[in-house]
Design a protein that fits this description.
heterodimer, A: alpha/beta, 4-stranded parallel β-sheet, 18 helices, 54% helix, globular, B: alpha/beta, 8 strands, binds iron/sulfur cluster
């Protein structure tokens, strides 16, 4: 074999094979969802942190505007969609997922020709309060029922009155879905869905944990892609099967010592939503700098802890109330420091995302506290997750290079 | 005091409440700051603190930039800046209500970086006005009362809170009377002066404010309205941190005849039931009152409230005045503008950034808007 051949073979060896299965799964999912538009099977649009298990139980197709937004962003198509919303009077200062989604609802634009029209909307504000304003607008636009699952902000431990409020809403949510579908809630079969969801979440968590090895078998850029099914389809058997496959692949990579980078000098933690339109370039840059983003706060948000099989509905309700973005800065810092220790990182890169206030405001304090507690440096990059008009590639790249150069070996 | 002196005093307060608050501190008043109108002022006041509202300030930011990004609203940025600069030393503490994502995070940042003695959080449901949320809200308010009691080191009596409910209800009724008087007698007092007299209440003892309003009303009720020929407008949005907007409108021969502001008409919507369990009663009012855009639509939807105000007041145009980067308000703008358009009411959106405030720019935008309304 010549050198080129060797390089190709090495590249091939390092490539993540499950990515193909994922594309297949997601294509099938979107095709099915789009095809449902003209059938009796209801389609629900739901926020990424929303309880999806009840939808799966009622045989409603869940569709995620945020996942679609990420897709539009990665395809460099979200700016034109945002512009449509802006021309209708939406400010450039509101979340670009929301703007892009509203734009795409109007023009059916984007890489897959827009999302199928919703029959109902489910909005859970555990990720932000932007979503309920956004979904109010969708409810007006499509003139369909909207269920708001309200998750008050949690400081410290989950207080009992929030847990109770969550449970009341879980019950209301079931009745709402009964009304919409004309079907009855069946606890037994719901628990099966919840169990599958839990199984998928655990598998996903194990997948992410594989990155504790050196060299890391994946980077966050892979996780950002591999996460789509856990966001969209948790609660189905397909997702369990899929992550079982991913886990096997990761285990064997770890055993064989196959890292995602040819050489892993530094290990870094990523905070916030990816800069979707820049994934490829940033991936290349970090590879060139021999720095692997081994863990992030975004994909780990779908690894709720403490779902209790003995009291699945309550514990599910509690888990949804306490997701990463719905807790105070101290708890967020603990989470991050814990990740840093478990994944043995040398520093943290934070995306200060002008679209996403709950994720970004507080980052300056978080970064300082992180350094104080771990001794590791941080880098804060100003950008927006899907509106590339705010992005300055030259500046960001220079800052990343400087940052990595100053990391100790 | 005669009407003019009252108005002058209130305008002065509005222009700069902070020196005055420092004075209050010197006089031994204990103060707790709040930001959002969903704050249970009755409970704070009953505990012996004057609840004083921080509405930002026109200033260059020197400290807050190390904690908040530039894409955060200027209320949060300038309030935090004053606190970090040590200018709010007279405060005993502050209460943060879960208004929006910014406020939520501001609370943590504030708590970690300042050393006021008291820090209160109140987490509200967004589903106001729906059966599901009321028990939660009641419990949260009970918890809040408990936090204040713990700080005081002694329990509060229901009677004391009830007395304060009475004081605040009276305040709401007096302000409502002022709005009605203006509605029935156009020209009796201009919007700038009337709003100043309402806003001033944020920085004084509530009984004092009640007395002042009563004197004002007495003075006005004996006055003949003057036909001023000004173009009637309505101002909507969040807060007017300074009197500039309304001053400029007067200069341009327009008058604010009614408002949909959280430092104005929305602040006084609905009364607290008197005589029952005070905490439940306060919760119930919060839950029933017209929602602000940071809450999901309530019994009386915010858009209906606004349209109703526009129709009743005879406003010929609406100026939306909000903070840049304020998502809750910005999201509703296209919808509200659309509703107004259907009614042939022109509207203008102005964004406030206190750290780079320019009166000249504001004037230019308003002037152009007035020309559109008047069709010149
Ligand atoms: S504001 Fe943040 S959490 Fe909310 S929808 Fe936008 S990106 Fe998601
Ligand atoms: S102005 Fe808007 S963004 Fe700022 S604190 Fe108020 S509601 Fe939040």
């Amino acid at each position: 074999m010549n050198d080129n051949g060797k390089m190709d073979a090495d590249k091939e060896r390092r490539k993540i094979k499950s990515a193909a299965a994922m594309r297949e799964l997601m294509t099938k999912y979107y095709m099915e969802a789009k095809a449902a538009e003209d059938t009796n099977r209801p389609v629900a649009w739901i926020t990424s942190g929303g309880p999806v298990e009840p939808l799966i139980h009622f045989d409603i197709i869940p569709v995620y505007p945020e996942n679609h937004g990420a897709m539009c962003g990665a395809a460099h198509m979200n700016v034109e969609l945002c512009e449509v919303a802006e021309s209708k009077g939406f400010s450039r200062d509101v979340c670009s997922y929301a703007r892009g989604d509203i734009g795409s609802a109007i023009t059916k634009g984007g890489p897959i020709g827009g999302l199928p029209r919703p029959d109902l909307l489910v909005c859970c504000n555990n990720i932000c309060n932007t979503v309920f304003k956004w979904y109010e607008e969708l409810a007006r636009y499509f003139d369909v029922p909207l269920f708001i699952y309200d998750t008050p902000f949690v400081r410290g431990d989950l207080p009992e009155h929030i847990a109770k409020y969550s449970m009341r809403q879980m019950e209301e949510y079931f009745s709402f879905l009964e009304r919409v579908t004309g079907r009855e809630f069946d606890e037994g079969s719901f628990l099966e869905v919840a169990a599958k969801s839990l199984q998928a979440i655990n598998l996903w968590s194990e997948v992410l944990d594989c990155n504790r090895s050196r060299p890391a078998p994946m980077t966050c850029f892979d996780c950002f892609i591999l996460m789509a099914p856990i966001v969209t389809l948790r609660g189905t058997q397909e997702v369990v099967d899929f992550y079982q496959g991913v886990l096997e692949e990761m285990h064997s990579r770890v055993e064989e010592g196959i890292g995602i980078l040819p050489f892993e000098r530094h290990r870094l933690l990523w905070d916030n939503i990816p800069i979707w339109y820049e994934m490829r370039n940033l991936g290349k840059l970090f590879m060139e700098l021999e720095s692997c983003l081994v863990v992030d706060t975004y994909t780990t948000a779908w690894t709720f802890e403490g779902v209790d099989v003995e009291r699945p509905i309550e514990s599910l309700a509690e888990a949804y109330a306490e997701v990463y973005l719905n807790i105070n800065l101290e708890r967020m810092t603990d989470t991050i420091v814990n990740l840093a220790e478990r994944f043995e990182v040398d520093g943290m890169v934070l995306h200060s995302n002008r679209s996403c206030k709950p994720y970004s405001l507080g980052q300056y304090d978080l970064a300082r506290e992180f350094t104080r507690r771990t001794g590791h440096p941080t880098l804060i990059l100003e950008a927006d997750h899907t509106d590339s008009r705010w992005y300055n590639r030259g500046e960001v790249e220079t800052r990343i290079r400087d940052f990595v150069e100053n990391l100790l070996d | 005091m005669d009407t003019q002196s009252i108005v002058d005093k209130c305008l002065e307060l509005w222009r700069d409440p902070y020196d005055h608050l420092a004075d209050l501190g010197l006089r031994g008043e204990r103060m707790i700051a709040f930001f959002c109108t969903y704050t249970p002022e009755e409970i704070i006041y009953a505990a012996g603190f004057i609840p004083v509202r921080l509405m930002g300030a026109v200033r260059t930011i020197t400290h807050a930039d190390a904690h908040l990004q530039a894409y955060c609203c200027s209320l949060a940025r300038t309030d935090l800046d004053m606190a970090l600069a040590g200018e709010l030393h007279y405060l005993e503490g502050a209460v943060f209500v879960q208004t929006c994502d910014t406020m939520q995070r501001l609370s943590d940042i504030w708590r970690r970086n300042t050393d006021f003695k008291f820090h209160g959080d109140l987490v509200l449901p967004i589903r106001m006005g729906e059966e599901t949320s009321l028990p939660f809200l009641e419990e949260e308010l009970r918890r809040f009362r408990g936090a204040i009691e713990e700080y005081l080191g002694e329990p509060m009596y229901d009677d004391t809170i009830n007395q304060n409910i009475y004081i605040y209800n009276r305040n709401r009724k007096l302000i409502e009377r002022l709005y009605r008087l203006r509605a029935n007698n156009p020209g009796i007092i201009d919007g700038l002066a009337a709003t100043a007299c309402v806003v001033a209440g944020f920085w004084m003892r509530r009984e004092e404010h009640n007395q002042m309003l009563q004197e004002l009303l007495k003075g006005l009720e004996g006055t003949e309205p003057v036909e001023d020929g000004r173009t009637p407008l309505l101002v909507g949005g969040s807060v007017c941190s300074t009197p500039d907007l309304m001053e400029l409108l007067l200069e341009l021969d327009a008058d604010v005849v009614d408002d949909d502001l959280c430092c104005g008409h929305r602040y006084i919507d609905a009364m607290v039931q008197e005589g029952g369990d005070p905490v439940e009663a306060i919760a119930e009012r919060m839950w029933r009152r017209v929602n602000c855009p940071a809450k999901h639509q309530c019994r009386e939807d915010h858009a209906d409230f606004l349209m109703h105000r526009v129709e009743e007041s005879g406003a010929r145009g609406v100026v939306f005045f909000l903070q840049s980067f304020c998502e809750p308000h910005l999201f509703d703008i296209p919808y509200l503008k659309g509703l107004l358009q259907e009614r042939d009411i022109p509207s203008l959106v102005l964004e406030s950034e206190l750290q780079s405030f320019s009166r000249g720019q504001l004037r230019t935008r308003l002037q152009a808007f007035m020309e559109t309304i008047r069709g010149v």
